[in-house]
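Per reviewer request, we include the raw input and output of the structure prediction for the construct analysed in the revised manuscript.
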Amino acid sequence: MFQLNLTRQEKNVILVVILAALVGIGISYLFKAIPKADEAYNASFDKPLKVNINTASFDELIKLPEIGPKTAERIINFRGKNGKFSEIDQLKQIQGITDKKLTRIKEFLVLEEPK
């Protein structure tokens, strides 16, 4: 049988190299198994998202671009205090929604459910 006469230090180096290779293979597998973030993000916007601001839930609102948890909560609270929105421009009354932001998100908003 083939026998290597290696020092303890040489055996440790070989062990570290083997472990590093196994970790690398594991990481490579994970990157292939998990979809890339940008692909998942783009897939979520393949078809235009339309949200009814009068009935949208918190989860639906935060899916809108530029609407985070605080703004979504403010929209829901506004509806609770003032009733339904009669026009999309009323969103400007909510803290954090500027003219500029409203212009960017307007295409994703509707007032009534599509028929």
